[in-house]
Amino acid sequence: MVLGASTLMSYSTYAQEEESAEVYLEEYTDEFQENFFEGLKQKGIQNYDRAIDLFLKCKQLEPANSVVDYELAKSYLLDKKYIQAQQYAIEALLSEPTDYWYLDNLLTILDKQGSPWASIKQQVPYRNNKLRENMALSFFKMKKYEEALAVLKEVDNGPLTSELTQKINDSLQKSIPKPATTIAERPVADKNDAVTILRTQIEELLSQGDYKGMLAVSKEALDSYPLQPYFYFAYGTALNNTGDSNKAIEVLESGLDYLLDEGPLESNIFRELSKAYNKIGNTQKANEYLNKINSGL
Fold first, then answer.
1. pLDDT band at residue 187, thresholds of 50, 70 and 90?
2. pLDDT digits over 92-116, tens only?
3. Residue 100 and residue 137 in contact, taking contact as beta carbons nearer than 8 Å
4. Domains and CATH numbers, the chain
């Protein structure tokens, strides 16, 4: 996301820089800030009609603000008003074609309606390679493996393309027993070394409570390795501790989709999600995630 005077705060692709909402909103009027933050609060406690009204007021104040379009799309989606949700989701994506979250939200809205993504293909800049890459990632997360493979055929070759193709093929063939040597034979040593280095760096920042530093490192890590669930946990935790609990929830819940099995990382994500939902005033969801840790679900 290219930041400018009309940008509210960063709901950007992983590679771009993010600061807390409070810093981004300094240049905005009190009316805009009050409506936007109250809208986030109302959405968080599932009062979607009220949230939509507030975001529409923000839209009047900042007509070209893609983050407001995104929040309207999210709120309409949660309120099961899919036509309106799709309209604003497309507007947001047209403003920021390389933004993963904008595209993922649009694909979720289409899925809820039972509409194929091809129905909106002509309305979005599909030739953008990053958009296609994000689409493949989103389809993989949604377990739409055939659709993901079809999109990957149109993506320029790169490390992510190869790794994602392998993971999709593994998922499609998971019912077929594989020799124990299959994974060991894959040429991934260099990637694993880089992942280990980044993870060690993040864990050190986490132990020091340096969430600002952790935000930058985890964001870069997630951009480079978007199939690694630990980096979703790290980025979500950093967001949650630097004033952006709403975005933290989105990132952390996406990380759950990439977990292969239960374990300490899943519990840590549940715990951070509980904290984030508490911060936005949704105690019901906070308790749900806390109960998942306690019950071992």
1. very low
2. 999 999 999 999 999 999 999 999 9
3. yes
4. 1-124 (1.25.40.10), 129-186 (no CATH), 189-295 (1.25.40.10)
